[in-house]
Amino acid sequence: MILYIIYINSTMMTLDKDFAGMVVSTLCLIHCIAGPIILALGFSGLELSFLLNEKIHIALIFPILLFALWSIPSSYSIHKNALPIILAIVGIVLLLMGVFIENLEELLTILASTFLIIAHFSNKKQREIN
Asked: Three-class SS of residue 77?
């Protein structure tokens, strides 16, 4: 997976910030979907129970925010399309709301991750067009 995030050309290594953002947002999405499934299937006492740990959610917030704030605003000057910024703002707001509204955490985080994945995908496609 690292090979897809960082690709090497003849002069330097380049980090594909949007792909990395999609990867960490997808990991967050998987974490939020897997938790309730693990509980529903009664696997909470097995090795999979580490997926229920709240620290994973908190640890994923930082790279998600990093890649969203690093990639999307800087690409706007290239493609001048506001859609990725709007999607990212909605995603970030939903993600932060999920931290503070505990009874809606899973729903808000699933929505946030989805918005951020689409924002990064849209941003990447817009950069490729321009």
From this structure: helix
